[in-house]
From TrEMBL:
Source species of the chain: Lysobacter arenosi
Keywords: Signal
Signal peptide: 1-22
Record's protein name: DUF4440 domain-containing protein
Amino acid sequence: MTQLMSLALLLGLLAVAGSAAASRKTDSLDRNQYAWAGAIRWGDFDAALTLIDPAFLAEHPVSDLELARYEQVQITAYRDRGSSVDWKAGVAVREIEIGVVNRHTQAERTVRFREQWRWDEEAKTWWTTGGLPDLWDGQ
């Protein structure tokens, strides 16, 4: 009977530990998506760069000219239009709608953007994997 109780206690502790790890992963995703949304919403693209997957940035560095282009716009809205998470695969996707005003022409438009996130087990954090949003959408 003692062995059975010990086994039940061990299984309970493992369940709690697994739940805590999942909670940390969830908290990290929420925290990073909130920081990303805030950085984009307030036009702090330098801060947004810190949340982009370092491997992606190494392959697709952002030039000073590209960053200067972001200074030409004002973000007026940042809306989450839907999201999904595959916890086992360590990937998350959010559909975003961004309101953008050109500072020079005062022309406003809405841009759709898909955020893609991946869990980095080694760093214990989530990275966005697609770079800064294309606020010009081919313009």
